[in-house]
Design a protein that fits this description.
By secondary structure, the protein is an alpha/beta fold. The chain has five helices and seven strands, in the order H-E-E-E-E-E-H-E-H-E-H-H.
Length: about 170
């Protein structure tokens, strides 16, 4: 039961990050929690989240799965492959809280799945917000206030200034 609480708390943190983005960009971001996909008449799959955001040049959609375990199991990869095979959904993000093996992370990446720690996911969401802001989408909240809200999800060595990609 403790493991389930740990997973639910982790999933809730990911949900808070997504809800913050949606609140700041209400006309451009939509977050769906536990969306139901009917793959066949008798088969349903429920991922953790689906994120939609509208940039000037595309409408992006990501299915997001979260897992906070020291080891990831292959059931998650099978679930994502199944969704990819039977729907038009093809963009996935795996947000992890534990320490998945390099082998599992490489397998996810080979399947075209973005893999991110919670801190990396926070930065990813920060970058989406900056792109939406630059694209002329109105914000409910200032960029500075969003930085402060998002900062609570970041690790100590990451700050909002890290949202911007560094050119070396």
């Amino acid at each position: 039961m403790i493991g389930n609480n740990k997973g639910a708390e982790f999933e809730s943190r990911v949900g808070e990050i997504l809800e913050t983005l949606e609140r700041i960009h209400p006309g451009s971001v939509r977050v769906f929690t536990k969306p139901l996909y009917k793959l066949r008449e008798d088969e349903e799959i429920i991922p953790d989240f689906e994120l939609h955001f509208d940039l000037l040049f595309e409408e992006a959609r990501y299915i997001i799965e979260c897992q906070n375990r020291e080891k990831t199991d292959s059931a998650l990869a099978h679930k994502i492959r199944h969704i990819k095979a039977l729907t038009r959904k093809n963009r996935f993000i795996f947000v992890y809280g534990g320490s998945p093996t390099e082998w599992n992370l490489a397998a996810y990446k080979n399947d075209g799945i973005l893999t991110m720690s919670i801190a990396e996911f926070s930065l990813f969401v920060g970058r989406i917000s900056i792109q939406l802001h630059r694209s002329g989408h109105p914000d409910e909240v200032s960029v500075e206030d969003f930085d402060l809200e998002l900062a609570r999800f970041l690790e100590d060595d990451v700050s909002p200034s890290d949202y911007e990609r560094k050119i070396s």
